[in-house]
Structures are given as C-alpha cells and as structure tokens.
Known about the structure:
Blueprint: H1 2-9, H2 13-45, H3 47-77, H4 85-89, H5 98-119, H6 126-133, H7 135-150, H8 157-179, H9 188-193
Helix pairs in contact: 2-3, 2-7, 2-8, 3-5, 5-6, 5-7
Amino acid sequence: MAHVLAATQASPLLWYVTRAMAVAGYVTLTLAVILGMLRPIARTTNERLSWLTDITHTSLTVLAALLIAGHLISLYFDPFLPFTLLNIVTPLHEPYRPLATILGVYALYAIVAVLLSSWLKNAIPHGAWRALHYLGFVAFGLVTAHGVMAGSDSSEPFMRAIYGASAGAVGFLVLMRLFARPRQAASPAVAGRR
Length: 194
C-alpha cells in the first residue's frame, strides 16, 4: 500500500515519457517497415532513390530501436508500475496486463533478431538473413497488438487512427507483395512480333 501511495504522489513525468517513447517508437517502426517493403520498387526505379530508401530504412530502424529502448528504460524507472528488469526482458510474472506485456516482450525478441541479422548481414548466408528479416513483420504485428492491448491511450481517437493507418498501410503493402506480380519484360523476339 505504501508503494502505491508513493507512486500516486510521484511526478507523472516518467509515465508521459514512457507513453511518448512508445508512440514515437511505433510510428518510426511503421515507417521503417513501409520503407523496407518499398525497397524492391526503389531498386527498379533508379540508383539514387534506391540508396535514399536503403539509408532511410536503416536509420528509421535504428531510431525505432532507440525509442523502444527509451520506452523500456523509462518504464523500468517509473515508480507507478513495479517493472523489474526480469519483467522487461522475459515473459514472466508481468505486473501490468500480462498478455499484452508478454506480446511486447516477444516483439522485443523479434526486433533484436532483425537488428542483429542486419548487422551481421555480410557474415551470414543471404537466405538466413532474409528469413530472419521476415521477423520484422512478426515484430510489427506483436508491437501493434501490444500497443492496442496495453497502451493507456489506445482507446483515444488519435491512437486508433495511428494503429489503423499503420496496420492498414503495412497490410496493403503485404497484400501487394503477395499478390501483385511484377510484369516480365517481353523478350526481343516476342516484342518484335507485336
């Protein structure tokens, strides 16, 4: 009881920082995923656009990771909810909305795997890197579910709009990649007969 009383009298600054880091991290992660999915299109357009897309995708991914780290650090130090380091890095005995928090922990694992595979891209086989990089979609889905279920602002119209726009954009691009087949260039013999 004393812990709860002390927490209610404490400054809410860390709670605001935690929420701001979470929302900024989610938006940044969404943009990184979108740019990652647009990379094949950029590669076929021109070299400068391809380079810009690649560098922006990489930068946004690192920024998203930093914002998520900030979210976790501020959550750890926030006296309102007693998160331990063990709660943050393992899906055990979560003090707040356990299922939602466990999804967040698994999202953290997926994000770390994607980042590590990207940093080790030249040291591992391309097929392994590609398979690990697909965890980015899993991470995005888990982060979305975590935010919707655990976010204190998830019922607010602005957050519903962010989740809806983010999931809609990523979902649309996933469907486009799955079902839209790139047109094959006609061979010279076929082109000459037309």
